[in-house]
Amino acid sequence: MCGIIGYLGKRKAIDVLLDGLKRLEYRGYDSAGVALYNGESILLRRVKGKIKDLEDSLNKSPIDGLYGIAHTRWATHGRPSEENAHPHRDCKEEIVLVHNGIIENYLQLKEELLKEGHKFASETDSEVIAHLIEKYFEGNLLSALKKAIKRLEGVFAILALSKKDPFKIVGARSGPPLILGVGNEEFILSSDLTAILPYTKDVYVLEDGEIVEVISDNFKFIDFSGNPVKKEMKRISWDPLMVEKAGYKHFMLKEIYEQPMALRETLIGRVSIERGEVFLGEINLSVDFLKKIEKVMIIACGTSLHAGLVGKYFLENIAKISCEVDYASEFRYRDFIWDEKTLGLSISQSGETADTLAGMKEIRKRGGKVITICNVDGSTAVRESDGAILTHAGPEVGVASTKAFTSQLMALALFAIYLGQIKGTIYRENIFEFLQELQKIPQKAEIALKNDKKIENISSKFLSCSDFLYLGRWVNYPIALEGALKLKEIAYVHAEGYPAGEMKHGPIALIDEKTPVFAIVPKDRVEQKVLSNISEVKARNGIVLAVTTEGNREIEENVDEVIYVPKTHELFTPFLTVIPLQLFAYYMALKKGHDVDQPRNLAKSVTVE
Hints:
Layout: E1 3-9, H1 13-24, E2 31-37, E3 42-48, H2 51-60, E4 67-73, E5 88-89, E6 95-103, H3 106-115, H4 127-136, H5 141-149, E7 154-162, E8 168-174, E9 179-182, E10 186-190, E11 202-205, E12 210-215, E13 218-223, E14 234-235, H6 251-257, H7 259-267, E15 271-272, E16 277-278, H8 287-292, E17 295-300, H9 302-319, E18 322-327, H10 328-331, E19 342-348, H11 354-365, E20 369-374, H12 380-384, E21 387-390, H13 403-423, H14 428-449, H15 452-460, E22 467-472, H16 477-491, E23 494-499, E24 517-520, H17 527-538, E25 544-549, E26 561-565, H18 574-591
Parallel strand pairs: 17-18, 17-19, 19-20, 20-21, 22-23, 22-24, 24-25, 25-26
Antiparallel strand pairs: 1-4, 1-10, 2-3, 2-4, 5-6, 6-7, 7-8, 8-12, 9-10, 9-11, 11-14, 12-13, 15-16
Helix pairs in contact: 4-5, 7-13, 7-14, 9-13, 9-16, 13-14, 14-18, 15-18, 16-18
């Protein structure tokens, strides 16, 4: 998870590093630190807490330098503390290092280094790398890093510098992302584009097994064996202003309101209403291959998994094709059956989710094809797939995913229509109907957002509740899961999402006047079924909050609170029903005084298992 950044250039290094850490803080925020080389020695400052705590420390006692590296931590090995914060040093305090990942054999390496006389100052696995580099250092930092990483088992993105080999930063990647931004007489190395974009849009993305060396006026890439690597520069289209709050109190609220735009961007250029056709040429798989597909296997984690569950209904109802959805973290350990008529589909906002990438590798080991739905062009998932559908949602900074989710739904709907179109399992008039409705979804999302104040007021009534039950059926069952997840993530309120029909098989025992039930009940084929479930709740003195289709006034007599969303095709109701649940979770968290953008114990991109 952690965020790492390095800077070498003409700007004031400490300013660039601190700015980068603030943009990376969503990746981890239990401690932070910075190391600067001032021409003679390496200056280090670390704190337990957030970037603001580091900034306060530096304001009280400034340090300065010509270039440096910095880190914001999400703890894996070792409790959050100043000693466990990065950067880490070697025994002589001549080498400093920041690391994102997990070193699985660190105890073995640590025991070896202790026997050789090395002294450790932290409980972390990361410090082992600094001592290994020290062990192999003979005047050339790149050579020492190359030898050290051959000893490592696990995943890592590393940046290091040494006062004995000055005006140089070296980095290596095996798993978590590492990107080099090349500006005007300056270089920025980071785990995320958000820290690079304010300075340059020209980047090089390191692949697994690659090392980068940056010196004052040049850079080069080699593989772990020392062979030169030629890489192509990529120009990023994101505007740096897209990652600013733009007047919103939190990134999450901004991103909730950006959903209409994200939906339009994901849709644009991919459909022809006149011809009744979807264009997804970026998938890069032949029409002949796609015609033979009889099953789609979706793998994802968290919110992306919930999008995949909605996508299952899209594929089965629109394309008439079998679909299975699994947690990527479990899929990778299954003895799953694969054949040439199965297509893998991974979903990941960042494209760097470790479990999802591992699942993709398992599919390819069996000779399978896998495509990805992703928000980050150039990410590992995009590069390692047979084709990608980019969601064009723009950077998502809030840890709790919102606009990435709905844009994933749009990509899944387009893919289902595209596959049905190719396989001939969908009539042309149905394609027209679906595309016309998808074109209206962004505008209808804007209307759904106008319930903002009402939802804020409703949330005030339930701040004392410690448990919630979310119920949905058919295509809105995954929305119940997503609503419950959002409440858990940012409001720290226990919530469970269930298929409404399963309530009587256990969860009904929880129903009382202290456990509100959020029912997703739009006008669709299962509306009457969910209404029956609501009656079962009310018969037990339960409190019911309902999300339903505008005009459905009859429901008001049977529930305690109602939130209306615009009418749409029954398959596409999840685009709209999820928005009130996002806002409800946001306002619950806000009124409880929680850090909405940086909820405790969570990080945006889970780049370790």
